[in-house]
């Protein structure tokens, strides 16, 4: 049993994993590497002057790994079902139980549909926290936006879902905000002094 299962390893999924893993939630992430980011070059991502999509993914994956996210690279999720107070995520290799699920599968809405999430036309219907009509299930990125498919928007969606999950788990509004004075105690050897 894990706290959070994330389906998808693009900007939304990796962002959600970074936040949940960094803040102590046991997180698994399933990534078939089918993201459009491999075709991208980012000039419009705040804080990044210019980076190829594959290079961006490598950095984001390393960040998630550094904060303890268990990434199952290449393991495809075939089903997600509500079970009790959580979810069962089924892959070709195994089943995983989780308290929360974040769907970050790009424009593919099949898992959200089979889970019973409500739709607004062709889009998964979510609130500002990215939570769907199924409590504890979140949808992000292209599956919730008609044509606004952009890396920084997707990463923000993943972060919004993660912060909502963290607020639920901590029992209060949770803010993930790091400051230089606490960087060493929070990040230890992960600090980049450049």
Description:
Strand 9 (119-120) and strand 10 form a beta hairpin. The chain is built from 5 helices and 11 strands. The longest helix is centred in the last third of the chain and has 20 residues, at 151-170. 29% of the residues lie in helices and 25% in strands. It has helices at 11-22, 53-66, 110-115, 151-170, 183-187; strands spanning 2-7, 27-31, 41-42, 51-52, 70-73, 77-83, 86-91, 95-103, 119-120, 123-124, 137-139. It has 194 residues and is an alpha/beta fold. The chain is globular. The strands form 3 sheets. Strands 1, 2, 5, 6, 7, 8 and 11 form a 7-stranded mixed sheet that branches.
Uncertain regions: pLDDT < 50 for 5+ in a row? Answer: none
Supply the number of helical segments: 5
Shape descriptor: globular
Residue-averaged pLDDT, rounded? 89
Q: What is the terminal separation in angstroms?
A: 38 Å
Number of strands: 11
Structural class: alpha/beta
Radius of gyration: 16 Å
Order of helices and strands: EHEEEHEEEEHEEEHH
- Which bin fits the share of residues in helices? 25-40%
Biggest beta sheet summary: 7 strands, mixed
The fraction of residues assigned to DSSP E strands is: 15-25%
């Amino acid at each position: 049993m894990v706290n959070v299962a994330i389906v998808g390893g693009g900007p939304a999924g990796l962002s959600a994993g970074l936040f949940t893993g960094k803040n102590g939630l046991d997180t698994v992430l399933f990534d078939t590497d089918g993201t459009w980011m491999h075709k991208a070059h980012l000039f419009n991502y705040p804080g990044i002057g210019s980076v190829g999509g594959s290079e961006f993914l490598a950095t984001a994956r390393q960040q998630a790994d550094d904060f303890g996210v268990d990434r199952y690279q290449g393991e495809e999720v075939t089903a997600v079902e509500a079970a009790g107070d959580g979810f069962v995520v089924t892959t070709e290799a195994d089943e995983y139980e989780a308290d929360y699920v974040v769907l970050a599968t790009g424009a593919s809405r099949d898992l959200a549909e089979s889970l019973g999430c409500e739709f607004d036309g062709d889009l998964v219907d979510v609130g500002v926290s990215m939570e769907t009509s199924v409590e504890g299930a979140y949808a992000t990125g292209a599956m919730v936006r008609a044509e606004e498919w952009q890396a920084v928007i997707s990463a923000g969606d993943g972060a919004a879902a993660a912060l909502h999950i963290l607020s639920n788990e901590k029992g209060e509004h949770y803010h993930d905000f790091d400051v230089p004075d606490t960087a060493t105690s929070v990040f230890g050897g992960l600090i980049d002094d450049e």
